[in-house]
Amino acid sequence: NAGVTQTPKFQVLKTGQSMTLQCAQDMNHNSMYWYRQDPGMGLRLIYYSASEGTTDKGEVPNGYNVSRLNKREFSLRLESAAPSQTSVYFCASSPNYQSYEQYFGPGTRLTVT
Amino acid sequence: QKEVEQNSGPLSVPEGAIASLNCTYSDRGSQSFFWYRQYSGKSPELIMFIYSNGDKEDGRFTAQLNKASQYVSLLIRDSQPSDSATYLCAVNRGGSQGNLIFGKGTKLSVKP
């Protein structure tokens, strides 16, 4: 049981490049989340998926898109990376949207130059 | 007003002492409260949650909730150097199930 996994662990992009961050969970959870964590800002919710087939914006969605591919997988796409998107990105999952207990993946450290 | 506030620290305690971490929140509709531990360079790890007023104990950890004062705390008894980490308080956004608001965290340092 790996829990929540994320790929890649590290990534460097040039401004304007695109990439997709991958997240998968094997806990049969219904809800999944993407956060970013910046120094002095704490964790901020980018997008979430309450259940398979649904996605909604969080606090800071601009510049990102998401896809809930199936119950296990939730990806985050940066279409045109900007230096302001340099951050550590965490994926999390919870049993369902009524359960607030979220479990986090190991994170992706992204640098945009 | 910030939604979830924590003292950023660092909070330094000697080994074996009680560490007390505090958190206040602004949304009176919040019903669920969480403490996460985050080691440097690692992801947040859920260590406690509390939904009702009062105390909840789990091993060396005790979470305390006072909804009237909009205050939640985490006590760590018999603190160990391995408890040195940043502790994040999280609160559900009232009326929005599953949507958590995180504080910026308190850095705890336990000195041997």
Question: What's a quick, concise take on this entry?
Answer:
The complex is a heterodimer of chains A (113) and B (112). Chain A has 113 residues and is an all-beta fold. Chain A has strands at 4-7, 10-13, 19-25, 31-38, 42-49, 56-57, 64-68, 74-78, 87-94, 103-104, 108-112.
The helix-and-strand class of chain A reads: mainly beta
**Share of helical residues of chain B:** under 10%
What oligomeric state do these chains adopt?
heterodimer
Computed over alpha carbons, the radius of gyration of chain A is: 13 Å
Q: Which term fits the overall shape of chain B?
A: globular
Q: Count up the helices of chain B.
A: 0
Query: What is the chain-wise order of helices and strands of chain A?
Result: EEEEEEEEEEE
Strand content of chain B: over 45%
**Overall strand count of chain B:** 11
Question: What is the distance, rounded to the nearest whole angstrom, between the alpha carbons of the first and last residues of chain B?
Answer: 37 Å
Largest interface: A-B, 24 and 19 residues
Main beta sheet of chain A? 7 strands, mixed
How would you characterize the overall build of this protein?
Chain A is built from no helices and eleven strands. The mean pLDDT of chain A is 94. The termini of chain A are far apart. With 113 residues, chain A is an all-beta fold. In chain A, strands 2, 4, 5, 6, 9, 10 and 11 form a seven-stranded mixed beta sheet that branches. Chain B has 112 residues and is an all-beta fold. Chain B has strands at 4-6, 11-14, 19-25, 33-38, 45-50, 54-58, 61-66, 71-76, 85-92, 100-102, 106-111. In chain B, the strands form two sheets. In chain B, strands 2, 4, 5, 9, 10 and 11 form a six-stranded mixed beta sheet that branches. A five-stranded antiparallel beta sheet of chain B has the order 1-3-8-7-6, with no helix packed on it. In chain B, a hairpin with a 4-residue loop joins strand 7 (61-66) and strand 8 (71-76). Chain B starts with a strand and ends with a strand. The mean pLDDT of chain B is 92. The interface between A and B is medium-sized, with 24 and 19 residues.
